[in-house]
Amino acid sequence: MSDAGIPLGRRDVVVGALACCLAPAIALGDDSGLPQKGDNLVHDEGPDDGKPVTAESVAKATGVVLAVPSNASGAKKNSSRFSKVVLVQLKPDEIQDEYRPNAVDGVVAFSAICTHQACTINAFNPTSRHLECFCHHSEFSVAEGGAVAHGPARKRLPMLPIAKGEGGVLIVADEFTGKPGAGPA
Question: Which of 7, 11, 53, 99 has its Cα between 20 and 30 A from that of 178?
């Protein structure tokens, strides 16, 4: 019987327990769609949609470049929104030493999913050098490896280590430095 005096049957208890156990997996998605070491990064929107991302294409962009990983045959791996990556370019010496090995020619990559409420981050402020989420106005310092500059987010953006592959294409050098999306700090 529940606290409210409503009788609970076996089925109610089992369904409730399953819902509690499955909810986090459903909310956070399946990790199989996340960028994996060796994946190429491809543009995820705009006139270059599906084309490989290079340091040069990020440098030419005004603002951010949104990308997703692609498999060996070039097909986008976008089954999970948590696979979305945001790339921007800074001067290499603006990036703190500990994060510089994860960058290529000043190009840095982060999860494009805000750590506050899982909105998509799609803006870069060139004055503050912060990535911005317009849902609730969290800001993340690119030079400091995605550290929270202004909340309400409390958890840094996971960085995606990248490297330069064949033909200058940016490839995933390792998995995200943390779990993408909202969660505890």
Answer: 53
